[in-house]
Every structure is written in structure tokens, then in C-alpha cells.
Amino acid sequence: MTPMSDVHAMLQQILQNHAAAFPGFPAQPTPASTSPDPVYQAALQACSALGFIAHDAECVARAWQARSVRTGRFAPTPWPDEPQDFDLQPAPRRIAFAPCPRQLGLYAVLPDAAWVGRMARAGVPTVQLRFKSDDPAAVAREVTAAVQAVQGTPALLFINDHWRQAIEAGAYGVHLGQEDLDALRPSDLQALQASGLRLGISTHGYAEMVRADAVGPSYVALGAVFPTTLKKMATAPQGVGRLAAYARLMGGYPLVAIGGIGADQFGEVLGTGVGSIAVVRALVNAPDPKAAARALMARLAAPQRIQPESAP
Prior knowledge:
InterPro entries: Aldolase_TIM, ThiamineP_synth_sf, ThiamineP_synth_TenI. The chain is built from 13 helices and eight strands. By secondary structure, the chain is an alpha/beta fold. The chain folds into two domains: 4-80, no CATH class; 105-301, Aldolase class I (TIM Barrel, Alpha-Beta Barrel), CATH 3.20.20. The chain has an eight-stranded parallel β-barrel, surrounded by six helices. Helix 1 crosses helix 2 and helix 5 packs across helix 6 (163-169). The radius of gyration is 21 Å and the shape is globular.
């Protein structure tokens, strides 16, 4: 059995090489493990020390272990970002939804059909209807109105959550959170895929990205990048360091960054390699939403890309 001193040495090498890339996260309790593999043990402890929650720490530790087996050696750098080590689907994916553009541009998340039409006519390339109601008839009306609102514009319309109504109304796509995805029965997922709708999935860390990959979505949303008051988040803001690592791993998908992103942060967010930025308050709370949309799209078209600090 490998001495614990060797595990400790590996742990210190990982921390020394990667602590700068993931600043500001308090250490988490190390998940219990009975694995005798020293690479897994060291990586698990290192990820916990770097602030990754238990199921993400385990996910990265397994990937570190898989890479060491694949290459025949332990390497403290680079941070694991090879899809095969996370057991992601190889290309071409066996399970996959219809594709969407890799660069979705400015992605406006909007509360009702009137806002959808307003932003589509302002030239926003991707819009999402996030309409909250327990009234099925009201949901159906709003989804239908949103589909009608983008007609005559090039905007791509995604419907948050209400996938059955999205199919019926003829929307471009649907966006689901992790809870929504888990609630789907296999027959539901098959019906959604057979409809031809594009599928976007929210993720908040490594384990959720692996879960999303299993259904082959059209795009993957990564967040929340910064603090947001829009909704209560189960995970802490991820920051650009983690976002850059996520983008390297999930680079086979169109990627959308979301969560508290303002105009001044567009450069550093785009520098991580994502192809789209989703905004909510930057538009719906703006004094002049159309002018705000134009300004944000200009930043996306010619941003000053700031590369996030990454591990050597």
C-alpha cells in the first residue's frame, strides 16, 4: 500500500499548482472514501481543500485517477480537462439533441412574451421565455405568444421548463434545470428529442456537467458565475477560474455563461472560451432596454478579452 506520506506529497503538489486558479472558496470536508488509490485520495483531498463540494470533488478525483491510469503516471498539472477522463460521450455522440449555433451571442432571459418580442425586435439573437405560473392555460398562452413574438426576426427562442407547451407551440428549443432533467421519465426524454427541439441544460459544477452530457444537449449553461439575486442558488458563485476549467472540459458543446454578469465583466467571461453570455437584470432593469441590448451586443462582437488566471 502506498504510504500516506506519498498521498500528502501529491496533495501538496496539486494545491501548489492550482490554488491560484480557484481563489476565494472555503475548504470543504473531504468526502469519505475507501479507495486505496493514492492519486484518487490526493486529488479528493486537494479538491476539497480548494472548495469543491463533495460530488464535484469526487468527480474530479475520479478523472485524475483515470488520467493517471491512462498515461501511466501521476501528474499534478494540468488540471484534468480531457473529456475521456470524465467519461463524457465521444464525438460523434451516440445520444444527442439537435444542434444549435456554437456562438449563441447575447442570450436574454425574459419574464414574458412581451419582453421576448421586444428584445427579438431589438436584434438580440437568442431569447428565453422564463414564465412562472401554476396555471397550465396561462403557460400555454404565454408560450404561444412568445413563439409568435419572434416570428419575422432571426431570434432563436428557448422556453424555460415548459417543454410540452414548447413542442406544441413550435418553439426553437427548451431549457431545463437539473431538477427538471431529473424529473423527466425516459419516455419524456425520448419525446423531447424526437420533437426536434434544441435542449439547453443548466449546470453548476462537474457532476452536473457529466449528468448533462449523458443526454447530449444542444448547449450547456455554466453558472452562476457571479453573485445573483435572481434566484436562490444551491452552490456558491463559480467565478471565472472555475468557469475557464469548465469551458475547457465542455468545449465540445456550445457554452452559455450565466449569473450576475454585467457589461464590465464581459471581457473576462468571454476570455474563458464560452460562446455566449446570458443576462437578465442587465436588460429588464435597464432604463432603456433596447439601448442596453445594443451596447451588450457590441461588447460581444468586439470584446476586450481578459484571460483568467489559470494553473501552470
